[in-house]
Amino acid sequence: MDAARRAGCRATIVAPAAVSEASVVSGIAVHGAPTLRAAIGHLSGTTPLPRAGTERSRSAPEARPGPDLAEVVGQSLARRALEIALAGRHHLFMEGAPGTGKSLLLAAARGLQPGLDEEESIEVSRIYSIAGLLDRSAPVRRARPVRQPHHTISAQALVGGGPRVKPGEASLAHRGLLVLDELRHFRSDALDVLRQPLEAGAITVARVEGAVTLPARFQLLAAANPCPCGWRGSRRRPCTCDEGGARRYAARVSGPLRDRVDLWVSMGEPTGFRLAEAVGDRSATVAARIAMAWAAQRERQGSLNSDLSAIALLGDGILGPRARRTLEREASRLAVNPRRTVGAARVARTIADLDGRATVAAAHIMEALHYQPGAAR
Amino acid sequence: MIGVGTRGPRRPPADQQLHVPAGSPPPNGDGRAKAGWHDLDLAAVGRDDRAAWVALSLIPGMGPVSFGTILARHGTARAALRAGEALLPLIHRPGPDTLQALRRQRRQRPEVVCAAVEAAVARVGGEILTALDDAYPGSLAQLDPRPPVLYVAGSLDALQGASVAIVGTRRASGYGRSVATDIGDALARAGLVVVSGLAVGIDAEAHRAALEAGGRSVAVLPSPLDRVYPPRHTRLADQLRSSGGALVTEVPPGRAIGRPDFARRNRLIAGLAQSVVVVEAPDRSGALLTASIALDIGRELYAVPGPIDAVASRGCNRLIADHDATIVTSTGSLLQRLGARFDDGRPSVGALSEAEGLVVGSLLQRSASIEELLVSTRLPVGAIASALTLLEARGLATSYGGATFHATLAARGRGPARRQRAHA
Fold first, then answer.
1. Which of A145, B157, B162, B258 is 20 to 30 A from A309 (CA-CA)?
2. Helix A321-333 and helix A338-354: axis angle, to 10°?
3. Per-residue pLDDT, A320
């Protein structure tokens, strides 16, 4: 079926027994014909066969598409950062006062992800099956998962565990999005256990009988207020936090976790925009650019930029010697540490891919460095 | 005037203490105390009372007001110390250990007490300055009551030179930091000493700008010399000392600091500087205390205006609206009013791309958020982000952690050069 679709077929006729399985492949109509005569009748248009659509509709729950990105007015930089994040599956952190549109952007993200490919679809379905979350009548999940646990979640519920190892939210978000709104309100032990999957894409849960490894190649999208009262940096409302409290709050996102987040954007108050410039592209347009960037990455290296090893990334085919030298020079000027410099290289590659460029230019590097915490601000 | 009210019926209000009411002549009966200790003939008191001044000033709860009252009553600090616990009613805000200290000091020789403090101050490279000393800053003469004893580390010269205080809120916006940097830089280049309080926010930016411009800067501390407050500015304090500036405080070494110390610090800033510039101050800010004392003692007061919807600028805007302060419309005009010449000999920087030029050109006209830059430059957001990062790496723009970006001094320095190229 997959091959037929790739070959450009729009519809297929299969035996009724195969309809269910065939319907797993999307983008192609499936008709069940019990006899050859029925098939001929369908093709000649005299007795059309019903289109089998039931399997697909039963493969829900599909992620709700969420609000359209164009509903976020202003915040151009945050919208841009979100697009880059999804285009390369880079972890993203957004910081801003209440009402700046953080949650709306997080919600819009779910409508921007390309769908799962066949292989990923099977991986994800397997995890949901272990977790007992798979609908028996819809055995294959096609939508890229989006998990948004509440900030009261325990470390175990986040990464999995228990007497009979159950996948946690991090594994349920495998190949999809792990959305953590109010990141600084999460328990610090819960945030700490995320470090391993953020780095390795998998979680090892130690058991008496031995260690169990669960895949958890999720993309982290996080948001938080800059301080406990939320108004630090606001010009309209005074921040009522004391200096020490605000600093401790900021430090709740620990250095190691911070270093693994390649895009860091601080959202100002929505002032100073003009509607003509402030209303950005609709989700459909952005999703199309993201899909193109994915295709470019997969064609070049068979994986997305966030999955590249540092060695592969810094190699000549991907980043290129000129871009590498620019990055080295500017990162040291801005005092960006080595781990984050590699992160910036990945992001720069993605920006170039969004731009449709084979080579990474200095402007792509500088933009990537803009999304570093502390460095570019 | 230091904002101290009375608590309990035992003590009369502060100004009545200073001006001893008629009908109750002071014990020494020379009538000198009537005008407070401000008018005391210090030369007549003589330097031999110096050790006793230091010793008396160490009594917990002793501020300049109490010190003045006591000196007016007893003539000399030495005589006052002999009075022991009888001084208690004259001390404004006695602490739990005030009485004990009075009893102890009555038995001790002031020279011994003074020598011990002198040694402690010397250990951190400082020295004691009393109002009896020649090196005591002349500008403090207007401060009534003036601090009897100061602890100073660094260059005493810096306390005598022409100086301007730059004060403002700890919760400074990027705008405030940017302006504090500009003014600190300009004043230092004009050869003026920049006085501030070493606090985070405006104070620190002003000190740093003066340092980076190769000028001198005086930090007035709310803490003893041996415990710089805030601790994270310890290095900055060291740099100020080692580059011709000074640290000044009224707080003796080893003393724990409290709220009144901050008010005294703010007051001392107004006393030390000939002019005070308030860069950014919300409604209730220590900087406004400095401003009101500056007005009381006849200092020139300047305030930097801010947006009317900016909480951090409300105090400044009100100072201007009430005609208490002269509005600062540009660094140049401030310097002109101060009678200093503006030195604009700054190095220019390397070539910029078109996008970077557009962004820095826009920031030179007006500080802006990314949204505003989208409107003014018509560049895509990615190009603006990219340009801003390069400008920051080159030191031409900064956001001070906020959402608004500002052109730096270096960028302003290259302004004329850029225009020339555009004409060519």
1. A145
2. 130
3. 83
Q: What is the mean pLDDT of residues A186-192?
A: 89
The confidence score (pLDDT) of residue A275 equals 65
pLDDT at B277 over 80: yes
Give me the pLDDT at residue B39, please.
54
Chain A CA closest to residue B404: A268
- Sign of the Cα torsion A255, A258, A259, A264 reads negative
Instruction: Name the phi and psi angles at B27, rounded to 5.
Output: -55, -35
Confidence at residue A22, expressed as pLDDT on a 0 to 100 scale = 62
pLDDT at B250 over 90: yes
Closest partner CB to A77 (pick from B355, B381, B394): B381
Percent of chain B at pLDDT exceeding 90: 53
**Both tokens of residue B100?**
């004990």
- For residue B407, give the H/E element and its range: strand B404-407
A86 DSSP assignment:
H
Question: Each residue of B249-286: b (16+ CB within 10 Å) or e?
Answer: bbbbbebebeebbbbbbbbbbbbbbbbbbbbbbbeebb
CA distance B333 to B339: 10
Enumerate the residues of chain A whose CB falls inside 8 A of the CB of residue B355.
363
Q: How far is A124 from chain B (nearest CA, A)?
A: 34
On the question of pLDDT at B374 being above 60, the answer is yes
- Which residue of A238, A334, A351 is in closest CB contact with B282? A238
pLDDT digits (tens, 9 = 90+) for B20-38: 333 333 444 343 333 455 5
Q: DSSP string covering B25-87, please?
A: --TT--SGGGG-GGG--HHHH-GGGHHHHHHHHTSTT--HHHHHHHHHHHSSHHHHHHTGGGG
- pLDDT, residue A20, reads 61
Contact A367/B at CB under 8 A: yes
What does the pLDDT average to over A307-318?
A: 84
Q: Which of B371, B389, B402 sits opposite A273 (nearest CB)?
A: B371
On chain B, the residues whose CB falls within 8 A of the CB of A341 are none
For residue A156, name the pLDDT band (cuts at 50, 70, 90).
confident
pLDDT given for residue A54 in this prediction: 44
Can you tell me whether residue B257 is helix, strand or coil?
A: coil
**A334–B404 CB contact, under 8 Å:** no
pTM: 0.66
Q: Do B368 and A363 touch (CB under 8 A)?
A: no
Measured CA distances, A224 to A85, A184, A202, A355, B396 (Å):
17, 6, 25, 29, 30
DSSP state of B203: H
Contacts with A243 from chain B: Cβ below 8 Å: 170, 200
Name residues 269-298 of chain A within 8 A of B (Cβ): 269-274, 277-278
| Angle (deg, nearest 10), helices B286-296 and B259-272 | 40
Strand partners, B130: B149
Give the residue carrying structure tokens 């200095």: A362
CA distance A269 to chain B (A): 8
> Considering only CB atoms, which chain A residues are within 8 Å of B368?
272
* pLDDT band, residue A236 (cuts 50/70/90): confident
CA-based nearest residue in chain A for residue B380:
A76
A368 φ, ψ (degrees, to nearest 5): -60, -40
The whole-angstrom separation of Cα A11 and Cα A25 is: 11
Higher-confidence residue: B418 or A12?
Answer: A12
The answer to whether B407 and B397 are in contact (CB under 8 A) is yes
CA distance B158 to B241: 10
Instruction: Report CA-CA distances (Å) from A119 to A115, A125, A203, B394.
Output: 11, 10, 20, 47
| ipTM score over 0.85, yes or no | no
